[in-house]
Structures are given as C-alpha cells and as structure tokens.
Hints:
Blueprint: E1 8-13, E2 19-24, E3 30-35, E4 40-44, E5 55-60, E6 67-72, E7 78-83, E8 87-92, E9 99-104, E10 109-114, E11 120-125, E12 130-134, E13 139-145, E14 153-158, E15 164-169, E16 173-178, E17 183-184, E18 189-190, E19 196-201, E20 207-212, E21 217-221, E22 226-227, E23 239-244, E24 250-255, E25 261-264, E26 289-294, E27 300-305, E28 308-309, E29 315-316, E30 321-326, E31 331-332, E32 337-338, E33 344-349, E34 355-360, E35 364-369, H1 372-383, H2 389-396
Amino acid sequence: MRQRLDVNIGQLQAHEDLIWQVTYDPTGSHLASISQEGRLVLWNTENRPRQGPLATAAPLAAHEEWVNGVLFAPSGELLVSASQDGRVAFWDITTTPPTATIQEGGNPLNAIALSADGRYLATGEIGGQVRLWDVATQRPLDPPLPNPDSEAITSLAFSPDSKRLAAGDEDGHITLWDIENRTLLGEGMTAHTGTVWALVFTPNGEWLVSGGQDGLVMVWEVATRQPVGLPLANHNNAVVALAFTPDGSRLASAGEDRAILLWATADFTNTDSAPQPIADPLAGHERRINALAFSPDGRILASGSNGSVSTAGDVGGDDDIIILWDMGRLEPLGPALRTRHGRVLALAFSPDGRWLASGGQDGAVLLWAVSPSDWGVLACGRINRDVTGEEWVRYVGLGERRPLCGGE
C-alpha cells in the first residue's frame, strides 16, 4: 500500500464554531464555508499558494444564527446562503467586498437547494414549508409550494434537468413537485421510519435515492413515485450521506454504522432479491461518517467521520479522519488524513479535482492536495531535492518516475 505525503497545504481559520458545509464555485476560484455561529466566509483560491493558508476574500455578515446552506450559482458570480434566522442572502461576489441582497424568509431554514440551470432556489423550513425563489429577481415566489405535511424539512434536491424538486422531512416523508407548474407530483411517499437525512437524484434524473434514520437506502422512480426494486438494507443504523459517481454507475452510502457501502446502479431494478453491495464494506472509520464526496473524474472517494467523544462531551483524539479511497482498487490511497477537526462534517473537491476542502467542528477549513503533481511540489519544498525512485514508489506509485523538482 502506498504511503501518503503530508498533503495538508494549510489551515483556513476564520470560524469559531463547527463548520457545516464547504463548497467550491464552478470555476474553482472561490471556496465558501459556513459554521454554526452564523459566519459565512469566502476564500480566494484563484491564486492559491503551494503551502500555507489562503487569503480570505471576506467574512460575509448577513446572518445571526446557524447558516445551514451555502451554494454557488452555475455562473460562479452569485453565492446564496440561508440560515436558522430565516434569512436568505444573495451575494454578488464580483464586487469588492461582496455585496448582499438579504431577504427575510420567515421560519428557520433547515435546507436549501439550487437548480442546475440557476433559475430557482428552494428553501425548506422547520415548519414544513418549501418555498421557491426566483434567482434573477432574488425574490420568493409566493405562495409556498403546496405541501400536505407539516414536519420539519431536513433535505432538498433538484433533479438534474431542474424540472423537479424533492424534499424529505423528519417524519420520513418525501414530496415531489413539478417546478414549472409549481404543483405536487401526486401523493407524497412514506419513505423511511424517522428522518430523511439525505436525498440525491441519479445523474440522468430518472431515479431519486434517499437515506434515512431507519438505516435503509431507498430508490424511487421519479415518474411513478414508486420504489425501484427492493430497499438497500445492508446498513444497521442511520444513513446520513449519499454520493453518486459522476457517471451515475455507482452509489456510495454511509452513516452511523461507520461502513461505506458501494452499490451498482444497474442492480437497483432487481425485484427477485435485494441488491447487495458490489464489494466488502470500505472499513477504516471508527465513528459516524458524516460526509462523502467523489472527485470529478470518479476515481477517488473521500469520506469524513467524527472523532471520539469524552465523558465531558468534548471531541478529541486523532480519530476524526478523512480517508481517500481508490475506486479502482477499492482500497485507501495511503494512511488516513488526521484533521483535528473533532468532527469532519463537510467535504468538497475543487472542479479540477486537484484539491479537497474539509470543514468540521473546530471551525477550521483545511485544504488537501489530491493530485500527485501537487504532492511532488509540496515534497520538493520540504526536502529541498527531488524524490528518489524508492520514494516515488512509496509515496506516488503512479506510472514511471519523473522529475518533480525541475530536473534530476
């Protein structure tokens, strides 16, 4: 097994509480992070250093409570944030400093989603309301979408063609809407016993996948709102994270049971027996797995987990880790990355796949080099020479050795 270089290129420290989410803009020039204390920070990654922290473009102040979601519009010029304070902020990041149009959304907001075409924002409220927003005018489209349920919304997802919206709630229901007509797509689905923690559409938009408190992964045909095949029932506790490979051929699921399961999408239609994972569980975490992310080329899966909790409730130790998995070999790409986050709650790859951002309970955002060429530059800067053939095999292990430091 290859060993991994220390590829943490720096800590971005601007938060004082746990970080819920990190996300790159479509161009990779900005990274946004949000935390429980209500702070939204925009980082300038366009001229990222090889080592050391990035420059903070601006702490963006618009919220007074937890910021539960932050998303970039497809253009990369608009950033949207939503909070437990009920506010939605539309940030123009082409200005210096970024300027915001702040709208009062009403009840505390638990979830947000942005359509792939950039036209609509959806917000889910603690009182069960789901509201559409016109991104161009930055105004809500009243009235809220019709919803027969009144339970708190816990997850939202737009279909890839932006024509449908799905919402999951804390009572196990999933509701679907037609966006153009703003109408319900039939009756809601009783999907899980307990909270619907995760929703994700297949890349072709034909199926919707949900993960719930009951430990099940359910696959739904969007057109009929009926289950596709049988439940994926191999987890023994809550499923809180789901991710598809970019081509949609595989699904990864994870949660409380500390196991990552990989599923072949082609198996979901089997009605004779429940689909089974395509390999043994990816095992390496000792605590709940909160986040999954595939690299843009689908070759690497990143997973992040909690650290151990003391009797006083403090999170510590060194088991709050990120593991990078080689999807070809189905094994870790070297030892786990020790984060000191306490809990790893958010992961995001840059659009070019070279960098992985992580956020967690400690309020820090960490950037990790994923590309072997970047590992080489970091190594050169630290050892002041090129790597030997033995070191290439040990640390890189990809193809024939080549100079990394500008020559032999």
